[in-house]
Amino acid sequence: MSMPAKPDKYAPVITIDGPSGAGKGTICQNLANKLGFGLLDSGALYRLTALAVVQQGIDIKDQVAVATIARALDIQFEAGEQGVKAILAGHDVSRDIRLEETGMNASVVAAYGAVREALLERQRAFQQLPGLVADGRDMGTTVFPSAPLKVFLTASAEERAKRRYLQLIERGESANLRAQLKDILARDEADSSRASSPLKAAEDAIVIDSTAMPIQAVLDKIMVLAKERINA
Ligand code: DC
Q1: Which whole-number Å values give the CA distances from 205 to 144, 194, 227, in the listed order?
Q2: 3-state secondary structure of 136
Q3: CA-CA distance, 169 to 126, in Å (whole number)?
Q4: How many A from CA of 22 to the centre of ligand 1?
Q5: In sequence order, which ranges of the chain are alpha helices (DSSP H)?
Q6: Residue ID of nearest Cα to ligand 1 atom 15
Q7: Distance 15 CA to ligand 1 centre (A)
Q8: pLDDT per residue over 106-133, tens digit each?
């Protein structure tokens, strides 16, 4: 999928925000498939920015230089057999953006107000008919404040660490449960305490705690809400 230029204000948006590891990615992909809607993985934009910064040898602490990279990002998202492919400057970087190191760097660049500003219009451009499922931290609060359905999906830090751990093991990567928990807590702290668009539920968001809920139950619940709110 290449990036459209102007948002379509008639296209309904479902925002799904929440902390790392709450299951947003899986839920959003399933929802978008079920509804035939587009999908915005906003975290991928921060990950792509972080990757471009490293690839170009820019100092990640240099906020002005990092924001310049974000503004000029040459990216495309393409539907592939194993989900959406992320293309940076013509190269498939789908695997690189998922590395733990890229995630940590993404949380550094995501704290810069100028980077968030640079990525705002790109994100809004994903609002196209027949509709959009937007996955992130500030989809309901900042990017799509008038979305008709906002969900804040959360789970206990222990449960999220366990899910991440199992995911890594499944991918054949080495993992350590205690290290995962430490990482999740550090990322929660970084995402929630930053001044610019911190992670928090929109006032009109419906909070779903998935700690003891299977994915299917979360999906069913959001589908019922989607039918009520946007006639989906
Ligand atoms: O969801 P994720 O793990 O791919 O996100 C990567 C980083 O980007 C994470 O530290 C949170 C940040 N992020 C953000 O600040 N705002 C968003 N809308 C999405 C992600």
Answers
A1: 12, 20, 16
A2: strand
A3: 33
A4: 12
A5: 24-35, 42-55, 63-71, 100-109, 113-124, 157-170, 177-193, 215-230
A6: 110
A7: 14
A8: 989 999 999 999 999 999 999 999 999 9
For the whole model, what pTM was predicted?
0.92
Both tokens assigned to 207: 């909070």
Query: 46-83 pLDDT, tens per residue?
Result: 999 999 999 999 999 999 999 999 999 999 999 877 77
Using alpha carbons, list the distances in angstroms from residue 113 to 123, 144, 195: 15, 17, 8
Q: Tokens standing for 211?
A: 């700690």
Beta bridge partners of 39: 133
CA separation for the pair 62, 69 (Å, rounded): 11
Give whole-number Cα distances, 62 to 2, 74, 176, in Å. 29, 20, 32
Contact 210, 22 (CB under 8 A): yes
Q: Which atom of ligand 1 is nearest to the CA of 143?
A: 18
Does ligand 1 have an atom closer than 6 angstroms to the CB of 136?
yes
Average pLDDT over residues 8-28: 94
Place of tokens 């990482």: 183
61 CA distance to ligand 1 centroid (A)?
A: 18
The helix (run of H) or strand (run of E) holding residue 206 is strand 206-209
Sheet containing 13-17, strands listed edge to edge, beginning at the edge strand earlier in sequence: 38-41, 132-136, 13-17, 149-154, 206-209
